[in-house]
Design goal:
- The termini are far apart.
- This protein is of the alpha+beta class.
- The protein is 20% helix and 35% strand.
């Protein structure tokens, strides 16, 4: 019989572990010879014929508390899937359990050959910057940032979308001088840039490190995004395919944006 002396510590451990727990399971898999680890993990674009791809497995990841963010669930599936040879994925579902403070993500993973992967990745959107407040749709938090001196308030579960133009310079900043100023300018067509403004898990989920033709700089620290950037400061750039996934699970911002002249307009997603 468990007495009150032992019950309280056990309950405490249960709730602490639940707050940091995460699980991943295989719902379906292809019984074939073992494949070499995958190098990529690309979102499969609309129009790609998955019947011609090699199915690897369908994964379900569930996380509680801090481990329930979309990026955390995506990362644990990606690591498992790449380990058995998958290099691409489709979103099957994402569900929220508010009662138990948990979220569940289901992805179907495939193996593409190199030429098909190139075709798929060429279908990714180009020349757009996406900015997310976080990757927890049910959070009540919001963040503020500025783009070319225009103040934007972004609610949780929303994203800000900005179509960029060749040689157009954009200045992005968050949190004042101490957080730094990020200057973006592209010379020609490039893959989208995805930025998340909060959450350490998101910042560590994958840095886009090869962006030839884009230059960027922070206050007192300059770099070219054509060079590998392992630990960006200021505004965190996240993995392209995680960014695409976030756009499928979140909604475009329709909140108030205040330009320098203090007039108010609505972000239409351009």
């Amino acid at each position: 019989m468990i007495t009150n002396r032992y019950l309280l510590p056990l309950l405490f451990c249960f709730f602490v572990l639940q707050g940091f727990s995460q699980s991943v399971k295989i719902l379906e898999k292809q019984e074939e010879p073992k494949l070499p680890p995958g190098r990529d993990f690309s979102y499969i674009e609309q129009g790609m014929d998955t019947s011609k791809l090699r199915f690897v497995a369908t994964y379900e990841a569930t996380g509680f508390g801090e481990k329930s963010t979309i990026s955390s669930l995506f990362t644990v599936i990606k690591n498992n899937a790449k380990g058995v040879g998958a290099n691409s994925f489709l979103l099957i579902s994402f569900s929220e359990d508010f009662k138990n403070n948990s979220n569940t993500l289901v992805l179907k993973t495939y193996l593409m050959n190199d030429s098909t992967l190139i075709v798929n990745n060429s279908k990714h959107e180009k020349n757009v910057i996406y900015i997310f407040s976080n990757d927890t749709p049910d959070s009540t938090a919001s963040v503020k940032f500025s783009i070319n001196d225009t103040l934007v308030k972004l609610k949780s579960g929303k994203y800000f979308r900005k179509v960029t133009k060749t040689n157009e310079q954009l200045e992005l900043s968050q949190g004042g001088f101490s957080r730094g100023l990020y200057i973006y300018k592209r010379d020609y067509d490039l893959p989208d840039l995805y930025i998340n403004l909060s959450g350490d898990e998101v910042r560590n989920a994958g840095v886009t490190s090869r962006r030839t033709g884009v230059t960027g700089s922070y206050i007192n620290k300059s770099f070219s995004l054509g060079i590998r950037v392992s630990k960006p400061i200021g505004l965190p750039v996240i993995d392209t395919n995680l960014g695409i996934l976030l756009t499928k699970l979140m909604k475009p911002s329709r909140g108030k944006i205040t330009p320098p002249d203090n007039t108010v307009y609505t972000n239409s997603g351009e």
